[in-house]
Write the structure tokens for this entry.
Amino acid sequence: MTGIALLLAAAAIGHIGARALRLPAIPFLLAAGFALDRTGLVAITVLEDALVLGVAFLLFVGGTELNPARLRTQRRAAVRVGLVQFAVLAASGLAVCAALGYDVVAAGYLALALTASSTLVGIRLLQRRRQMYEPFGRLVVGVLLLQDFLVILLVPLVTGIPAGWAAGARELAGIVILLVLALATGRWVAPALLRAEDDEEPLLLGALTVLFLFVAVAGLIGMPLVVGAFLAGVALSRFPVNGVIRTAVAPISDFFVALFFTGLGALVGLPSLTTLLHAAILAALVVLVTPPLVAIIAERSGLAARPALEAGLLLSQTSEISLVIGLFGWLEGHITAQVFTVIALVTVLTMLLTPAITTDAVVWRVLRLHPVPHRSRGLFPDSGHIVLLGAGTTGLPLLETLLGAGYDLVAIDDDPAIADRLAPSGITCIRGDAADPEVLRKARVHTARLVVSTLRRPEDNHRVLDLAPNVPVLVRVFDEHDAGWIRRRGGTPVAYADATADALLAWMDSHRDTLDHSLAQRLPA
């Protein structure tokens, strides 16, 4: 019990440090575990138990996120980006590791560890920045889920092939058995769990039963525990079952996952200069290759330049699953402690870099090096028009209402599907980033009658407020904090509601004289 208490204390310190610095918790948990191990107070048996339970819950919860319905319009783009990124990083990782002197098996583990981006870090940043449901947010989530699935399913092959191709074939057969079990569980067991959602204890016991059943079956057929735990989550990933399950197991999962990363950090050895150099080289490979690669593919899939680049930057780190791969390879004797330490260091370095390289300031600096022409359709009015920033779920009904009222409209959206949908209606549409000054100037926001913004993040509106100081700018907001931010910068916040379009027209009717006077002042005599 003393060992568990020390692990929990170290995990708490790691979380406090991460929260204070607003950085991902995983590197801090690893560092706390590393420091704890230097004291010699925790027995190796305690670490092993924490690791086994922690990895089971980590991958189970990760599997529940693998719901293809979440991808919607970005499914094809996510598959394209995910597969190309996976293949390029795997190939380049193998080449770099061979050049650094690693044998085939060690190079294979290292290359596989480089291919997956962190689902925990990526989704946490998207949620914090309110970008989960933007086109590039859906793309990032889709890529993360695809990569997790590919890496977990490849683990048995990587571990089996060193024992011969026959062993690899047995591992593949084991994957098929677990996939069939996952499909059956999703069809017949998941609905029964959903019926118990109002009774917390049976729901929790049912979810844990599914988890440990898959782990037991994986052990019986000679498959790694990690594959069984992950596919148990996949079996319960369909909405709304996944949300109910995550809510039920979240307290237990958070407890064991914190112990897992802290215990994992305790296993990381003191790195040599060579190990640090190799980790820095591989981390640089991930950070330098991923953003341009993802951005190019995402743009060719229809995203505008800025969201495509943001997607690439958000995917520029290795994953918590990379740590699982390294741990499994080390415990199986396939790789040395030095190789495991390299994987852990690459994960720590890239996770710590991600929040810094995904800021708006970095995105705009990089974007200047990669100018992409913005596509537009329709004729641009010189003045007196209404500009709509964001024409998605909220914007489309608003556009229909304004078009029916006889206003000249210009819409800006970075989703190509939106631009294609607006083309038959004759609405002038710019496919681009509504926070880009060049795009806003092209839409002539400074001579508009009115600008209406449905952008999800209020801070994305600061450029239109700067470029059109004398134009009324209505901004959709979700809470009073955002409303205050908009008011201080000269905009008019509109609280989100289903009747936004009707409320907007009522506002325009009540301010028609003011709008006409403001427009007349801006027109040449």
Notes: The mean pLDDT is 79. Strands lie at 375-377, 386-389, 409-413, 428-431, 450-453, 473-477, 492-495. The chain has two domains: 2-368, 375-522.
